[in-house]
Design brief:
Blueprint: H1 4-12, E1 15-21, E2 25-32, E3 39-40, E4 43-48, E5 51-55, E6 58-59, E7 62-63, E8 86-87, H2 89-97, E9 102-103, H3 106-110, H4 135-153, E10 163-168, H5 174-186, E11 193-196, H6 197-209, H7 213-217, E12 222-228, E13 233-241, E14 249-255, H8 263-279, H9 287-305, E15 312-317, E16 329-334, H10 335-346, E17 365-366, E18 369-370, H11 377-387, H12 389-393, E19 398-400, E20 403-405, E21 408-412, H13 419-433, H14 448-459, E22 467-468, E23 474-480, E24 486-492, E25 500-512, E26 516-524, E27 535-537, E28 543-551, E29 561-570, E30 576-582, E31 589-594, H15 618-629, H16 638-642, H17 644-652, H18 660-672, H19 681-695, H20 704-712, H21 725-737, H22 744-758, E32 760-761, E33 764-765, H23 776-784, H24 791-805, H25 815-820, H26 836-847, H27 857-864, H28 877-889, H29 894-899, H30 908-914
Parallel strand pairs: 1-10, 10-11, 12-21, 14-22
Antiparallel strand pairs: 1-2, 2-3, 2-6, 4-5, 7-8, 7-9, 12-13, 13-14, 15-16, 17-18, 19-20, 23-24, 23-26, 24-27, 25-29, 26-28, 28-31, 29-30, 30-31, 32-33
Length: 927
Amino acid sequence: MLSLAVVATQKKARFVVGIDLGTTHTAVAFSPADRMAIEVFPVPQLVSPGEAAALPLVPSSTYLPAEGELPPGGTRLPWGDEPPFLVGELARRQGAKVPGRVVTSAKSWLCHDRVDRSAPILPWGAPEGVPRVSPVEASARIVAHVRAAWDAAHPDALLADQDVTLTVPASFDAAARALTVDAARKAGLDRMRLLEEPQAAFYDFLRDHELDLEAALAGARLVLVVDVGGGTTDLTLVRVSPQPVGPPRLERLAVGEHLMLGGDNMDVTLARHVEGALLGESGRLDPSQWAALVHAARAAKEALLGEAAPDEVSVAVVGRGSKLFGGAQVHALRRVDAEQILLDGFLPRTGPADLPERGRRAALLELGLPFESEPAISRHVCSFLRRHVQGALGSGAVVVDGLVRPEAVLLNGGVFKGARLTARLCAVLAGWFRAPVPLLPHDSLDLAVARGAAYYGLVRRGLGLRIAGGSARAYYIGVETPGGVRQAFCVAPRGMEEGTEIEVKDRTFALKLGQPVSFPLYASTADRIDSAGDLVDVDQELGSLPPLATVLRAQDGSTAEVSVRLRAILTEIGTLEVYLSTTEGFRRRFRLEFSVREEKNVGGGAAVAPIDELPRRFDDARALVERCYGKSPQPVEPREVRFLHRQLEKAIGDRDGWSSAVNRELWNIVLRGAQKRRRSADHERVFFQLAGFCLRPGFGAPLDEWRIGELWKLCGQGVQYLNEKANWSEWWVMWRRVAGGLDRARQEALALAIRPSLKPKEGGWAAAKKPKAQGHDEMVRLVASLERLPAAEKADVARWIWTRLDDPTSATTLWPIGRIGARVPFYGSIHDVVGRDLAAGWVERILALDWTRVDGAAFAAAQLARVTGDRERDLDEPLREKVAARLAAGGASETWLRMVREVVELSAQDEMRVFGDTLPVGLKLAL
């Protein structure tokens, strides 16, 4: 079923256009919409200031020049635009000279969920004064350049009016796909569809061999597509089924999991080799030198793996002062060495039982991106072929040592320009299956995806051969069942075709209008044959996604209960939409929104908590809360309110053991009595305690975003019992406990309210604005926990804390310094982390102190010196070793010592403990 907008676009489009928005390069191909005549569109772009050339590839680079860096008119494009930035070949060349001003790998940043992908954070680690753009904006600028170039060449057939297909990695999740669509729309392409890159590569193979397909396949019935691009590795299985008449039926059977593993990782590996050769194993370049070296290594790799490759390439590292004796050092990187480094690291000879090893993230964390912890592509291929045995057996596939045996392999991606890399992969497969696996022919690894995307546009118009398969994932909605068993029913089966809609007719829900409702959402790429409405157990094959949530609001304001069914739509652009449709009376439809946020762990970064059964005596706990905070006043002794938490623990157990479901249900009850907190100072203090404790850490359970919104309504009301210091303290503690659920605007509002009580002035401390806030220590802890504050504001707060620490009459702690300067935030975006130079200065000050006399010194030092693998955040190793020595001398835990010497990935619960709190039992966060 096509949408009316897409149908209208197809009717008036003169061309079908395929755009491969790649991590390293972007390519465009097109064809007249009524016949098969695909060709590459050479994109005009600047190659030097004021000089343009039409090239088949557009480097996916954006350069942000300094004022006066380029001559007047240096950014002027052939069609007259003169943007304040460069895109394409000249951007790549300028970036090689000044890497601190170039944005690369924007596509990889679109799927980086530890940053706010709509915030201006790139170039990562750029010097102060360099303008920054968001990953979405950087991607949009590349697409906009393509659109402007096309429009200039086709003024009577503008790109926005054509039938456009944009490619994405098969493993991109719903959030990354949605951000890709946002970037395209920001560039002026309001209507387009998405196509998975491995499928596009196979479509290009069909384009080349449509007339001799059987001969080209040589009888192969199961084809493995291995697509290793600049940023990701994508794996896909395609089944070929001969038909009695006509061409074979083609079906995509399976896609792999998301792997941020590709050419970027190889660049880093080669750069490390050069760094070690020049500086020795213990040598380490600073971030700016390192960024320049990675760019140089990328250029060397492309030269050494390309056609007519030289025997060696000189890789230079520009010196800075005395670190490299004041000048540049050059390393001659030989082709044979580079190939061997990449072979051993990324395509090692492995056996059929060698699966990916986890816990090796230290080897691949660079450039701010969370690269795959296991670099061996061969191991990931092995895991993929083992995972999809069941689905392939139905097509008559052969299984050898637990692996499904592909009968042919199609390669894609610039990595396979290296003949030895291709040969190694073939050798690994031959070793597993004890016979060679044939390679399918291709004529361009750089252009195949763009041409295949154009071919797909023609397929949708009835030309060419179509690959069936639909959605690579099945989607499930979690339901509550007797006994707390975690189950879910299928709402969108695997293989659902784009543009189709399914109603789950045998599942009906009774929901009340005007109240928020949430559905846990799961997805699976496994070989499961589940139909819409099938009820299944939630197991390891079902991965948690952000929940679907909505508030059903009737136009007349009704709060009646309605009966609804679920409808799932797989849109033309390949994204999932789920609707609730009423079953009686006037039919209405409500859209369920993905709770996907740009910042990690605010809904989007949290796995859905299990559906737990409430404790047997939960009704007693409810009655205890309602007795104190119920609608009508009841005779309650002050001590009943004061010790309410003790009574709750007697009813439902120790509060540290309360599950996520218990905490959130208690919070709902407590909040209903929010206005009754004014009954006494004890009522208010205990309300703050329970509201903060039961909603901690402010995210991670369905509807937490809504709960935070309800709690925030109390912020303007503030503390009512102004002279009660304990109430002030609990007020600040409440907001600290739920800080992870507060967006940047709310965190900045809290910081602004606290600022007058913290900021020192000449002659003493600034007087707080009326009403006078109390609980200074908890205020400091709160503001230190606001991870979404800009780094500059965090630095100001730290300076005030240091000033107070220097006051001999002040009893304070360094815990907030460690929290503010933590190298690894608990929930915030890593682009808001305090700069490494400032953090190093704080560590030097802490090392000069007597840790036995200053509370929190060891904690602060450990957090500031923690290793992340990102050079932009990590302190120099000698300074970290000083911290490690002091920690060891003071009897610090083994975990803290490891944290400052190597990359340590703590569980979410351990991260919370490090920061002085715990998570509710059963609340699992994906950190």
